[in-house]
């Protein structure tokens, strides 16, 4: 029987099981007695084995089978779930994923199972550390827990055969799901969802066109009909976007894995907490978030978190906490990475930036503590006293900031020396259909996502002053530099005969800045389309859209343009 | 199916694309400026809902600007690119078997020189053109 037609379904379901296995392994390391976690791992490996057997993927069956056996020993034979078991299971999960990549690419398997099945089968926990002579002899019941007696010693384990009776030969099994889920949900190809979102976007563009036409016609009936259509479209858009949303859960196992590996490598004790796994984000945003979040977590573990001894000396618990949380805030999603580590010192950040020639002493004197923290987002800035191979060479926060701004989001940093640091990403729920501020600069109309606009201002000339060779204006007690979007676009500078200078405030390179434009044309709901080759290579553009009157405009990545 | 070529002219000189790489030949329509793009990127056009960059091929090849409202837009297959080329006009579509002789091209974009009954044409490879345009855009930053 030709099973190839079921391959994509197998890969999709198997990846769900691997994700569950990865997450559960990391969780079990903290609470090794958690019976439900142990059961989940056993079932996960068992289901993987069965699914792979039904597809005749022998290599995957072998690895999953040994993982299942190992968990059988944990579940029924008293083997303690220690970091050795965790490492082996994660290694098995990684190996199966690599095997699936080969399958997906429709090529001959390039990833042999190697000795992993043997190591899974022959695992014995490391002997306890030798006791000091002065240590009192432990009570007999506590000296060696029963599990160790049930586990064969390394010497007694055959080189190839599993140490425990193997489970019956694999038989195809149905994934374990609730009956309700089977009845009420269906799998849909992501291309179909993208197509649905595109059609909704086109409808919104056409609705804008009708609105534009009716501005000339001024027909009450048409206005009413378009108003109703707009309401229905809003509901349709919301529903379509909901369908495209994927829970944050879909990417968290990667963070658990990387934090675990980093903590192990740096020898730091920490607890990693994730909150808001169920919060949904647009698939495209979710995919773009993996690298920025990973980088912030690396920073938190490597630079933010102190060694245990240093923490204890500072009166803190030896074990630090790194927290990744996701929450909804109206039509935005807030992603926060926080730690209770050493925190950031604004004065040190400023001194470092001056020393590196990134800012002048004059500019430094204008910085608020908040702006000082954002200096970490300037390319080339790093306060790490020494470069480590964990978080690299301090070139990452500017890239994080740039990625978030590309998504129409913002990055904020709060920190208290000795208490910890919190990085907050504020992101739109979706990047396909957005609200944008449309601006005019010379002949060019451009759109800026409202999520990247802190506010709009119409400034009178006398409200502008100069600091050094820069024009600034005062906003909420903070002197913000004024930059010209015309200049950034290579256009002649705007003239403002009525003395009113239109601008919007945004964040660029970690600082709030005022961006002067020729005109502010108001907020529009836009369906953003990709530009494709070759324009996708032009920096500063994030796509394009059709306005109601048929005019085409581009989505500006202001931070990139500046 | 036999390969066919679309023959067109740019400032009086003959060029050719493989027909399968061209989606449509359009009359000139309104275009909208592209921020920070080099001058040969004349603007954005709406090709059945797809935002498509319009390049004045003559200007790109250093042969001067196309006169407004004249010529044709050759829209490339959207699966290959979001690109339309502004040319003088399309001459004909010919089967590859009617090419009388082929010789080496005279430039990076023109891989072959084609001799036909209608005259000589330079065969332009879309991928080569795209890569050259992309390099120019990255350099415009």
TrEMBL record, chain A:
GO terms for molecular function: phosphorelay sensor kinase activity. Coiled coil: none annotated. Residues 187-431 form the Histidine kinase domain. InterPro entries: Bact_Chemotaxis_CheA, CheA-like_dim, CheA-like_homodim_sf, CheW-like_dom_sf, CheW-lke_dom, HATPase_C_sf, HATPase_dom, His_kinase_dom. The modification Phosphohistidine is found at residue 46. The keyword Transit peptide does not apply. Signal peptide: none annotated. Residues 135-164 have a biased composition (Low complexity). CDD domains: HPT. Residues 106-182 are annotated as: Disordered. It catalyses: ATP + protein L-histidine = ADP + protein N-phospho-L-histidine. Residues 1-103 form the HPt domain. Residues 433-562 form the CheW-like domain. GO terms for biological process: chemotaxis. One of its GO terms (cellular component) is cytoplasm. Keywords: Kinase, Phosphoprotein, Transferase. The keyword Phosphoprotein applies. This is histidine kinase. The gene is cheA44H.
From TrEMBL, chain B:
SUPFAM superfamilies: CheW-like. Residues 2-135 form the CheW-like domain. One of its GO terms (biological process) is chemotaxis. This is CheW-like domain-containing protein. The lineage of its organism: Bacteria, Pseudomonadati, Thermodesulfobacteriota, Desulfuromonadia, Geobacterales. It comes from Geomonas limicola. PROSITE patterns: CHEW (PS50851). Pfam families: CheW (PF01584).
């Amino acid at each position: 029987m030709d099973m190839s037609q079921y391959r994509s379904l197998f890969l999709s379901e198997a990846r769900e099981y691997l994700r569950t296995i990865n997450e559960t392994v990391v969780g079990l390391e903290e609470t090794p007695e958690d019976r439900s976690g142990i059961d989940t791992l056993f079932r996960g490996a068992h289901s993987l084995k069965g699914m792979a057997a039904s597809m005749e993927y022998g290599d995957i069956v072998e690895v999953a089978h040994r993982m299942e056996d190992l968990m059988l020993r944990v579940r029924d034979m008293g083997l303690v779930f220690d970091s050795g078991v965790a490492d082996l299971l994660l290694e098995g999960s990684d190996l199966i994923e690599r095997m699936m990549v080969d399958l997906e690419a429709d090529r001959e398997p390039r990833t042999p199972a190697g000795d992993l099945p043997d190591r899974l089968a022959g695992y014995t926990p490391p002997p306890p550390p030798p006791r000091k002579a002065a240590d009192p002899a432990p009570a007999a019941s506590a000296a060696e827990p029963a599990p160790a007696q049930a586990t064969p010693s390394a010497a007694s384990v055959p080189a190839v055969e599993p140490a425990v009776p193997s489970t019956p030969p694999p038989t195809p099994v149905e994934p374990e799901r609730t009956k309700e889920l089977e009845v009420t949900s269906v799998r849909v190809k992501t291309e179909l969802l993208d197509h649905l979102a595109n059609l909704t976007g086109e409808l919104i563009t056409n609705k804008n066109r009708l609105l534009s036409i009716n501005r000339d016609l001024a027909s009450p009936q048409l206005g009413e009909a378009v108003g109703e259509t707009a309401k229905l479209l809003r509901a349709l858009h919301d529903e379509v976007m909901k369908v495209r949303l994927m829970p944050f859960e879909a990417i968290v196992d990667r963070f658990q894995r990387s934090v675990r590996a980093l903590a192990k490598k740096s020898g730091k004790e920490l607890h990693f907490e994730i909150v808001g796994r169920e919060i949904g984000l647009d698939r495209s945003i979710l995919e773009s978030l993996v690298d920025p979040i990973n980088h912030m977590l690396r920073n938190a573990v490597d630079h933010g978190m102190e060694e245990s001894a240093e923490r204890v000396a500072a009166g803190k618990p030896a074990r630090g906490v790194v927290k990744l949380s996701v929450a909804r805030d109206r039509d935005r999603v807030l992603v926060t990475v926080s730690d209770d580590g050493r925190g950031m010192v604004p004065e040190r950040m400023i001194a470092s930036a001056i020393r590196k020639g990134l800012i002048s002493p004059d500019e430094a004197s204008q910085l608020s503590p908040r702006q000082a923290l954002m200096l970490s987002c300037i390319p080339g800035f790093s306060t790490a006293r020494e470069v480590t191979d964990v978080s690299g060479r301090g070139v990452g926060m500017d890239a994080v900031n740039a990625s978030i701004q590309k998504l129409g989001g913002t990055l904020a940093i709060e920190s208290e020396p000795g208490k910890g640091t919190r990085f907050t990403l504020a992101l739109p729920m979706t990047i396909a259909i957005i609200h944008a501020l449309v601006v005019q600069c010379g002949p060019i109309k451009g759109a800026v996502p409202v999520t990247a606009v802190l506010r709009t201002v119409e400034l009178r000339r006398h409200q502008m002053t100069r600091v050094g060779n820069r024009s600034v204006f005062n906003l909420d007690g903070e002197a913000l530099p004024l930059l010209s979007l015309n200049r950034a676009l290579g256009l002649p500078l705007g003239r403002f005969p009525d003395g009113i200078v239109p601008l919007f405030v945004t964040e660029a390179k970690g600082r709030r800045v005022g961006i002067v434009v020729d005109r502010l044309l108001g907020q529009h709901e836009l369906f953003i389309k990709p530009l494709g080759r070759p324009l996708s290579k032009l920096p500063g553009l994030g796509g394009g859209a059709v306005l109601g009157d048929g005019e085409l405009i581009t989505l500006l990545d202001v931070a990139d343009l500046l | 199916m036999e390969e066919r070529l679309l023959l067109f002219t740019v400032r009086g000189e003959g060029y050719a694309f493989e027909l399968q790489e061209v989606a449509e030949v359009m009359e000139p329509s309104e275009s909208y400026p592209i921020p920070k793009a080099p001058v040969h990127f004349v603007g954005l056009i709406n090709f059945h809902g797809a935002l498509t960059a319009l390049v004045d091929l003559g200007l790109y090849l250093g042969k001067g600007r196309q006169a407004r409202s004249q010529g044709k837009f050759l829209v490339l297959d959207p699966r290959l690119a979001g690109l339309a080329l502004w040319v003088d006009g399309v001459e004909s579509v010919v089967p590859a078997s009617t090419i009388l002789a082929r010789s080496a091209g005279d430039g990076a974009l023109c891989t072959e020189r084609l001799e036909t009954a209608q005259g000589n044409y330079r065969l332009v490879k879309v991928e080569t053109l795209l890569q050259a345009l992309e390099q120019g855009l990255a350099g415009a930053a």
